[in-house]
Amino acid sequence: MSGNKKEHTLLTEDIKALFCEGDPSAMEAVYNEVKSQTVSWASGYLSSREDAEDASSEAWVKVFEKKNTLRSPTALMGFIKTTTVRCSLDLLRKLKKTKGNLSYTETECQRSVDPLEDSLAREELRLMYKAINAISPIYSEAITGRLNGMSLDAMSRSFECPVGTMKRRVHHAKNLIMESTRHLRESDNG
Fold first, then answer.
1. Element (H or E) spanning 31, and its range?
2. Nearest to 64 by CA among 113, 111, 12, 20
3. How many whole angstroms separate alpha carbon 161 and alpha carbon 91?
4. Residue 91 half-sphere exposure toward CB, CA atoms < 13 A
5. How confident is the model over 156-184, as a mean pLDDT?
6. For residue range 140-155, what is the model confidence (pLDDT) as tens digits?
7. pTM assigned to the model
8. Cα atoms in the 13 Å half-sphere on the side-chain side of 102
9. What are the tens digits of pLDDT across the range 56-100?
10. Which has the closest alpha carbon to 109: 138, 142, 139, 131?
11. Half-sphere exposure (Cβ direction) of 33: Cα atoms closer than 13 Å
12. Which domains are delineated in the chain?
């Protein structure tokens, strides 16, 4: 390593050239060698690790799609970094634009429950909405879209990201909500 720059010793010019030609083993080698670095680059722009991983995933999709457009294999690392930075900034803009758009109040929670439901069900729903408000907007929008019946395809078009990224966001949101409601339950009972 020299200074702040990480040297990718496994990435020879031959591997980079094979990557640009679409060789699957070269693509896997480059991905495995550089994926943690792309998350690190994205972390410089985004506040959470999950958001950085999302931006990195989206960047890799774009890098793989546009690998044939590189004029020279020597430009590969710059292309990967530039794509990662652009995806990070795009995600940052989306996060800033959507910040505060989702807000669930306790009265909305009570209105959405059948009055005949017992108080336990209302309390669970209140905790769930409280948890949705507590997570990152990118995840709360993903889970809210699913709760409102949107398909993953429709959501991926709306959020301008791959379906796989949307699946990951929904899955991660579910896990965050379950963990958050458990903590809220414990703090209410504690």
1. helix 24-43
2. 20
3. 10
4. 31
5. 85
6. 888 887 877 778 887 8
7. 0.52
8. 21
9. 988 998 898 888 888 888 888 889 999 998 988 888 888 777 654
10. 131
11. 19
12. 13-98 (1.10.1740.10), 106-189 (1.10.10.10)
